[in-house]
Amino acid sequence: MSDGYYNSKKTDDICEEVCGQQASFAAFTRSRLRCMLRGFDIRTCIFLFVVIPLFIFGLYLHGQKISYFFRPLWGSPPKPFHEIPHYYHENVTMETLCSLHGWKIRESPRRVFDAVLFSNEIDILTLRWNELYPYVTQVVLLESNSTFTSLPKPLLFASSRQQFKFIEPRLTYGMIGGRFKKGENPFVEEAYQRVALDQLLRIAGIEDDDLLIMSDVDEIPSAHTIDLLRWCDDIPPVIHLQLRNYLYSFEYHIDNKSWRASVHRYRAGKTRYAHYRQADLILSDAGWHCSFCFRYISEFIFKMKAYSHTDRVRFTHYLSPKRIQDVICRGADLFDMLPEEYTFKEIIGKMGPIPHSYSAVHLPAYLLNNAEKYKYLLPGNCKRESG
Q1: Which residues contact 135 (CB under 8 A, 6 or more apart)?
Q2: In terms of pTM, does the model score above 0.85?
Q3: How confident is the model at residue 33 (pLDDT cuts 50, 70, 90)?
Q4: Which of 74, 128, 180, 193 has the smallest CB count inside 10 Å?
Q5: Cα separation values, 165 from 201, 220, 294, Å
């Protein structure tokens, strides 16, 4: 310094270098950025700009899985059912079977009404009605031109009615127009259609003490279960049916926990068609629930967009035909969800694909008698038609 002058002011070497030279604009920008970041620790930068964004993206992709995995912490399991043992053998008399259940036999069987809301399950409906045909008095079917999610829907049953000639004399068919209220909770439209089914049952001529089967099309009571309940006296006013739970076909047996199907001794003014828990009693091993059991890939896509849980389709690629076919053959979940259970043991035990089952024992008789036509529902036939 000239004249012995000493400048004690602190300087930043980097910034001083930039300010003291005629640097290019790019060099100046880079250096100024280094000046700004000099006070930040590199680990802090990585945390702010890498870890946190990845965490947010992971929540976006897998938030639903995380929520379901920790369900035991925030959810309470429903009250357990009182399970009624189910006795059956084809060589045992009905009087003995009723007695084994603690009931008496009637002089004549009750009338049986089977009522369903129909969407697009033509094949499963065929299996259901052939299984129940010997014991049902009336089948009642309601169809709408709207899905529960307010999408337009063709009247598939009406256009396929010719193939159900065998049931025509016992059929009461109804069609209800959809309300097409976009953005409405799908369960509201579902409830609206179930109320309409109550009215259709009255048109069909149901009376007090007739048996009424309340279940979705794919929840199929076994024939001998319905025969037992129509012949036995003193059965409960409402009894749920424990069904074997299958996914995609009878190759993928999930568990035996399907419970929503129920049978009611009808009471005018009191019995209402519903699909939720209505009693604490459940009859063990009473049939089959085959969910998403379709022949065509297009039917899978339709249901994924149409049914009440459409919010589970979180990404459009879930509807890719190639992905759906792969998911079916692996026995994985269409919506990439974790099991809906209430203990960590059950959640972890059911994680991953469903094990293949090669048993076709105790399945609907019509299915086995027409195995070639419905082979996609039997073990070893996961490939689906495009449709």
Answers
A1: 109, 112, 223, 226, 227, 230
A2: no
A3: low
A4: 74
A5: 20, 20, 22
